[in-house]
């Protein structure tokens, strides 16, 4: 029978409480330490270049994300610089904080100190989290904010403290300013509230006031979307039609096994059972919330990791069941911790760069793990999340050689144009050390809004594309080099670098017909 969290706190001895806090903190701090220890391996991830570029153009919105990640990138750069360790530090801290919240969630749901330990360790060994908490991205903060919202709603269900709905509103608002997928959690919790006894909260002014707070916090991004004609919707439509792979429901379910860790999937199932059987149905809304979100993402052919931010909640609930019903003896509990830790370490190289890349390839090959992208594009010997960390210096140095070969008068007003934001962002960050003019120009996502550099459009170095397309805008198009970037994504490799001269179309006409939101 689930115990109320206040009862647990009152009846547990001081040594027991200290032990529980200490174990979860050790797991969290160890996790942060490992993430930071390998932060400098493999190189910058494609999206990190883009987010740093967005941080140089702070706004209330961007084509493919809300403003939160740009603000985090700006803060990271201001505090720690642009090194890999510097820009990834806060993501690692977000991971450690999520682990702490998962341990707390298990206690709020009625678990003992072992349940808190199981929940914290389950989050720490989750493969998909290793990567999402490793790089500068919106996903690290999305997971943290989902977990914090679930913790507050669990506190409300356990203690009837309606005032906490105001703080739920704050966190949901911040979540929507971080990643729009917070709306999935709102949808799921809404279904859970309506279908359970929690609907009594619909008559409480605290819940509706929390909703108004959410709207107030999210309003600047909504206004930006309106002012720009809802570009994020255009981006989402294009990505679904032309970029993201269409997964069958069975494949979506199978991916959960790999992303969550097979043993964690048992915790997830146990957590779902807990939510539908817990005393007085206090936490049943979470069970319906999970099922509703899962069904929605399957129906929308969402990427498998979109459901990952709900894992800490599900693991915490499953840990309560396991600690109470299955692993009651101390020896069995230590055995379970050991098995989870060992298997988690074995799975870590697939999502965290703990191995040199040659050893990783050999390790994956030996286990029969084939590289994948989750998108409609071929991959090489590395999965996309690793391939997108390689080849950037090769790309930038090749462009720099082309630039240096230009006559000095042309160098003075030559520009660099990249077809995707990864190349453009790499030029922006790495280009100065090679003597390249920055910023780069691109048609891709928010680079389109930052516009062309009119003074640098008459002599243009272009990375990739087809010669016949370039000849629509320039009379003189010449191949100047070919990029060889090794382990990078195949579509980045073997591309030509062109020099374009004698522009035959107005700059604005070229720009307006080049937009690419995907």
What does the secondary structure layout of this molecule look like, with pairings?
Layout: H1 5-11, H2 14-37, H3 46-55, H4 68-80, H5 84-108, H6 113-124, H7 127-132, H8 138-159, H9 164-176, H10 182-195, H11 205-227, H12 231-242, H13 249-260, H14 262-277, H15 284-299, H16 311-326, H17 330-347, H18 357-366, H19 384-387, H20 392-405, H21 408-411, E1 414-418, H22 421-430, E2 441-442, H23 446-450, E3 459-463, H24 467-470, E4 474-482, E5 496-503, H25 507-512
Parallel strand pairs: 1-2, 1-3
Antiparallel strand pairs: 3-5, 4-5
Helix pairs in contact: 2-5, 2-6, 3-4, 3-22, 4-5, 5-6, 5-8, 5-16, 6-16, 6-17, 8-9, 9-11, 10-15, 13-14, 14-15, 14-16, 20-22
What global shape is seen? globular
Order of helices and strands: HHHHHHHHHHHHHHHHHHHHHEHEHEHEEH
Average of pLDDT: 92
The largest β sheet comes out as: 5 strands, mixed
Q: Provide the β-strand percentage band.
A: 5-15%
Task: Write down the domain tally.
Answer: 2
Span between termini: 50 Å
Task: Kindly state the percentage of residues in helix.
Answer: 55-70%
Weakly predicted, low-confidence segments: 1-18
Number of helices: 25
- As a whole number of angstroms, the C-alpha radius of gyration is 25 Å
Number of strands: 5
Structural class: mainly alpha
Strand order of the largest sheet: 2-1-3-5-4
